[in-house]
C-alpha cells in the first residue's frame, strides 16, 4: 500500500524514528513517502497516514498539530496511526487526571471525528549540550522546581519502533483500514480479544 509519514522534529530523535519506520514499511513491500508537517503535504491518494512528533510542553509538537488543523477534513478520509516521542513515558495522575504518557496523545485523538486506529508513545532523548539556550534554561528551571537535575539521557529503542510498525500493519489489516469517513461502522463490532484468541488457536494448531 501507499503510506505517507508526516512528522516534525526539533532535535532529530523523531526523525531517526521516522527513518527506521520508513525502512521497516519498505521491507514489508509498501511504498512510503516522508514529509515534514511544515511542508503542508496533501494526504490524498494514500492508504495510510502516520503522524509523528515529539512531545513538547505536555502535547504533540505544535507544528504537527498545525498541519492536522489545516488538513483535518482530508485526514478524516484516510486511516491514521501516530508515533509520539517523549521522555515521560509512564505518565502519572495529576490532580486526579491522567497526565503524561499516552495521555499526551489526547489532542491527536480529539482532533478528528474518525480517530487514529492505532498509536503509541516511544522513548526520546535529551542531550543537554545540544539544547538551545532557551530550552536548556526552561528545562533546568522545570527540573529544579521539582528538586531534580536536568541530565542527558536516551530512552530511544529501535525495538519500540519495530513494534509500532508491526502492530500498525496488523491492526490495519484487522480493522484500521475501515477507519475513514463513511466506513468506520464496518469496524464497530470488531472484538480485539476474540481476534487474539482466534490467532492463538491457529498458532496452537500449527505447532
Ligand atoms: C523544551 C522541551 C520541552 C519538553 N517537554 C516534554 C514534555 O512535556 N513531556 C515529555 O515527555 N518530554 C518532553 N520533552 C522531551 C522531548 O520530547 C524529547 O527530548 C524528544 O526526544 C525530542 O524529540 P526531537 O529530537 O524529535 O525534537 C521536552 C523537551 C524539551 C527540549
* Count of the separate structural domains: 1
> What is the β-strand count?
10
Largest sheet: 6 strands, mixed
Sheet/helix structural class:
alpha/beta
The shape is: globular
The second-level CATH architecture is 3-Layer(aba) Sandwich
Fraction of residues in β-strands: 15-25%
CATH class: Alpha Beta
Instruction: Measure the end-to-end span.
Output: 31 Å
Q: What would the CATH topology be?
A: Rossmann fold
Radius of gyration: 18 Å
**Which ligands appear in the coordinates?**
flavin mononucleotide
Q: Helix and strand succession?
A: EHEEEHHEEEHEEHEHH
* Overall helicity: 25-40%
Contiguous uncertain segments of 5+ residues = none
- Let me know the CATH homologous superfamily: Flavodoxin domain
* Mean pLDDT level: 97
Kindly report the oligomeric state of this protein.
single chain
Number of helices: 7
How would you summarize this macromolecular structure in one to three sentences?
The protein has 7 helices and 10 strands. With 207 residues, it is an alpha/beta fold.
Amino acid at each position: 500500500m501507499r503510506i505517507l509519514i508526516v512528522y516534525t522534529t526539533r532535535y532529530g530523535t523523531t526523525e531517526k524514528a521516522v527513518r527506521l519506520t520508513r525502512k521497516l514499511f519498505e521491507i514489508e513491500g509498501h511504498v512510503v513517502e516522508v514529509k515534514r508537517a511544515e511542508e503542508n503535504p496533501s494526504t490524498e491518494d494514500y492508504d495510510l497516514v502516520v503522524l509523528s512528533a515529539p512531545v513538547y510542553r505536555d502535547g504533540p509538537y505544535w507544528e504537527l498539530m498545525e498541519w492536522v488543523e489545516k488538513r483535518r477534513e482530508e485526514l478524516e478520509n484516510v486511516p491514521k496511526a501516530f508515533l509520539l516521542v517523549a521522555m515521560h513515558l509512564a505518565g502519572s495522575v495529576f490532580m486526579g487526571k491522567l497526565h503524561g504518557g499516552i495521555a499526551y496523545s489526547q489532542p491527536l485523538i480529539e482532533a478528528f471525528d474518525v480517530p487514529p486506529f492505532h498509536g503509541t508513545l516511544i522513548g526520546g532523548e535529551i542531550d543537554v549540550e545540544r539544547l538551545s539556550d532557551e530550552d536548556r534554561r526552561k528545562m533546568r528551571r522545570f527540573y529544579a522546581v521539582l528538586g531534580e537535575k536536568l541530565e542527558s539521557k536516551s530512552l530511544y529503542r529501535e525495538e519500540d519502533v519495530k513494534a509500532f510498525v508491526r502492530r500498525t500493519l496488523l491492526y490495519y489489516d484487522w480493522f484500521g483500514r475501515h477507519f475513514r469517513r463513511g466506513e468506520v461502522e464496518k469496524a464497530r463490532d470488531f472484538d480485539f480479544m476474540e481476534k487474539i484468541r482466534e490467532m492463538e488457536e491457529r498458532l496452537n494448531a500449527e505447532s
